[in-house]
Write the structure tokens for this entry.
Amino acid sequence: MSPDERSSRAKLGVNAETLKPKPVSASATTLAQLMEPADANPMGNVHGGVIMKLVDQAAAAASIRHSGRICVTVAVDRIDFFAPVHVGDLLVLKAAVNYTHRTSMEAGVRIEAQTLHTGEVRHAGSALVIFVALDDQCRPTPVPPILPETEDEKIRFKQAELRYRHRKELREKERALRSHS
């Protein structure tokens, strides 16, 4: 960060060290949508891309709730599909922030499909999406630290921290390879 950026952030009172930690529960977001024929292939299975768009929306809402800022998707770490979602299912996405760094956040999303006439709920997938919070000039801005409270939240935090370090190491190795070519 340049001295000018530090100065302007100091004037605004924005400092990663002074932001009050927020519990994971403050970012918890649930998005539900009925799956319709336009969302599916001719066999009645919902397209993965339709689900991915809704995952991004749910994860963005969780990230915005946590940071109090507009957030942009910078990466999809992973998305795994475990069971099909069909036309007529209620797709329920449960999102929350797992981990924060200085300006970035990892949001986890649990994807569930409910067969409405039977009430059966299937774990249809899981996703991890990385966001960066933006200030009013559309520059990355610090986010509050996340405060995991439950054992599950603490485990997800540690797993996310490990993924953050691995992504950083991989980027550094890839940069080194490009500089040697």
Remarks:
- The longest strand covers residues 121-134.
- The helical segments are 3-12, 48-67, 151-179.
- The two ends are 29 Å apart (CA to CA).
